[in-house]
Specification:
Strand order of the largest sheet: 1-2
Low-confidence stretches: none
Number of helices: 4
Order of helices and strands: HHHHEEEE
Largest sheet: 2 strands, antiparallel
Distance between the termini: 61 Å
Number of domains: 2
């Protein structure tokens, strides 16, 4: 592999795409999906064995320009969801009616007036 490009994020995405197309083709019986699953696999193999390193880096950079914002947004949502699941017994979560900010209020306090720290909106919620 000396002088070859090797694996990167785009290659990983292409291999995952090939696996997904292969599974869809096998589960649904559509041979076109199964046959189409080889295309991303061969493209990933070509990119890994390529000697044109600047071109492969440029391709990966273009891919990452679109991939990282989506990945970051998904990771933040998963993190927020896991926090909410862990704290569901002790706190109640609300969205501010005006700015849609996520607010956390302790359970068992009855009806409370909530003030949004972001926009200052006041509303009453039952905990």
């Amino acid at each position: 592999m000396i002088g070859r490009y090797g694996p990167d994020h785009l290659n990983t995405a292409l291999i995952v795409l090939a696996i997904v197309f292969g599974l869809i083709g096998r589960l649904t019986g559509l041979t076109s999906f199964f046959a189409f699953s080889y295309l991303p696999l061969f493209l990933a193999l070509f990119r890994m064995l390529s000697r044109n390193i600047p071109a492969r880096r440029a391709e990966n950079d273009r891919f990452l320009r679109y991939y990282w914002p989506v990945r970051t947004k998904i990771a933040n949502r998963v993190k927020t969801l896991s926090i909410r699941v862990k704290q569901r017994k002790t706190h109640k979560f609300f969205r501010c009616p005006s700015c849609k900010n996520l607010l956390r209020i302790p359970r068992g306090k009855g009806r409370v007036q909530v003030t949004c720290p972001k926009c200052g909106e006041r509303f009453i919620k039952k905990t």
